[in-house]
Amino acid sequence: MDNLIVFDSHPQLSAILKYLHFEPDSDQAEIAEELFEEAKSIAAPKTLTKTVPVTINSETVTLGGVEITYPYVRKMLSGNDKVVAYISTCGTELEDWSLTKKGDPLEEFIADAIKLNYLYAAHKPFREAVKNEIFEKTGHLAALNPGSLDLWPISEQKNLFAILGGEEEVKEKIGVTLAESFLMSPTKSTSGVLFISEVEYENCELCPRLTCPNRRAKFKGA
What we know:
37% of the residues lie in helices and 21% in strands. By secondary structure, it is α+β, with helices and mostly antiparallel strands.
């Protein structure tokens, strides 16, 4: 699975309307459906992925030749001999399309939701494939994501990109770039490493942002 995957699956309109809190028969829903039809004709969400070996050192961990100095990452990956590094994105096609909606707050809001739902629709089957094909359904599939927690800060995007070949290669293959702030463009992109955990784990368990709309687990504290 060390390659570029372009997904041809689409989210459901009902999921987008639910995310937007639009009633199905409302005027807003009609606009959302029109924009969704536009998006469907060009959408090409992508994932760049690479399976790399894990080497646990005395104080650090090396992933595919890239040394990570954060104890949290070393601790979480202890016991793993490999991880799957990835960057998933809604795609530059949808990003460019969404920019044409600037100036209309409602359309801009809807376009942003469509991009996010395309990212979700692509990332879910990718995770399922990793679990079934790379880790052969054993253990709990978990993720570490630079910037999700201070324990592995967003500046570590540099190392994540390096694992996947570097910023130029990532840009060439899937169009994702890093700003000086280490935020990715297209904005609806996600990155990290997938690994096997003996227990179910989500970054959310250690994140104190209780009102986060993307929370997947209850906060358990540091």
